[in-house]
Structures are given as C-alpha cells and as structure tokens.
Design a protein that fits this description.
22% of the residues lie in helices and 24% in strands. The protein is of the alpha/beta class and 160 residues long. The model has no long low-confidence stretch (mean pLDDT 94).
C-alpha cells in the first residue's frame, strides 16, 4: 500500500526539510489536540495546535501554540501589531485556509498569513503540528517551520 502524503508533507519534501510523521486513527469526529497527543503517544508540551484569527484591520493571522495552552488574544494582537484579534468562525476555516477544523496546518494554507509560533517552542528540539489532514501529524524543528512559513516566535499564550 502506498504511503499517504499530505500537501504539507509534500511541501516539506520539496523543500528538503527533514520531518517525521505520525498518523492516528480517528472516527471522523472532531478530535482535540490533547486526544491527538495521547493517540500518538507524545507529551502535550511537544504537540501544537494551529489557530487562525482575524485582526481589527481585517487581516488574518495564524498562531501555533501547545495543545493544552490557551491563546492570549491581547498578547497575540501585540505580536502582530494589531489593536485586537479574535478567533475566526469554524465555518470560515476551509474557505480561508483550505483546511478543515482539526486538520489545519500552518504549512500549505491557500495563502501564507503572518504566523507566530509560541516562545515555548524555543526550548524544544522539535514540535509536532498538524499534517494538514485529520489523522496526520508532522514532527519538525521549530526553526525549520518558521523559516518555511516566514514566521516568528512570540509570547502569545495565557500564563497563570
């Protein structure tokens, strides 16, 4: 049987960026990041989720944070130079990114939006992000991810 490659994986292959991938079984229902981390047997600190927002200016921004963390909207807005940002509606995800909820990757969106990766990733040798399809995750170096998507690190999570 041929190995299934997602668009995000094909982009990484084309750019010769090393990565490892994980796949997991899903019943097709929405799965959250904590369930994904458990399914692939990885610690929550290494598994990141991709969140898409809209700024007060109407511009769109992508934030990549650990699955157990919460996006701090004030810090996120500051990181991208906006007065404020808010999460987009779930129904807008596919039209805007080309991905569906639960399978949204910062790699290979229809348009490359300004993207900020949580500062917490600086401590890690690699991070695990969505492979661009439910059931697929990609493990790669944070620096490789940021270089590919022209992103940056930022202080964007809620801290206690």
């Amino acid at each position: 049987m041929a190995e299934i490659k997602t668009n995000a994986m094909r982009i990484l292959d084309r750019k010769k960026i090393p990565y490892q991938h994980y796949s997991y079984q899903t019943d097709g229902e929405h799965v959250d990041g904590i369930t994904v981390a458990t399914a692939i047997g990885q610690p929550l600190e290494r598994v990141y989720k991709t969140l898409v927002t809209v700024g007060k200016s109407g511009g769109h921004y992508v934030f990549v944070i650990p699955v157990a963390a919460e996006l701090d909207l004030k810090k996120a807005a500051k990181a991208v130079g906006e007065k404020s940002v808010q999460m987009i509606h779930v129904r807008e995800i596919n039209q805007l990114t080309g991905y569906i909820r639960g399978g949204c990757s910062p790699i290979g969106m229809k348009k490359q939006f300004p993207t900020v990766l949580s500062d917490s990733a600086k401590e890690l040798s690699s991070v695990i992000i969505s492979g661009g399809r439910i059931g697929f995750q990609i493990d790669l170096k944070p620096e490789d991810l940021l270089q590919l998507i022209r992103g940056k690190f930022g202080d964007i999570e809620v801290t206690d």
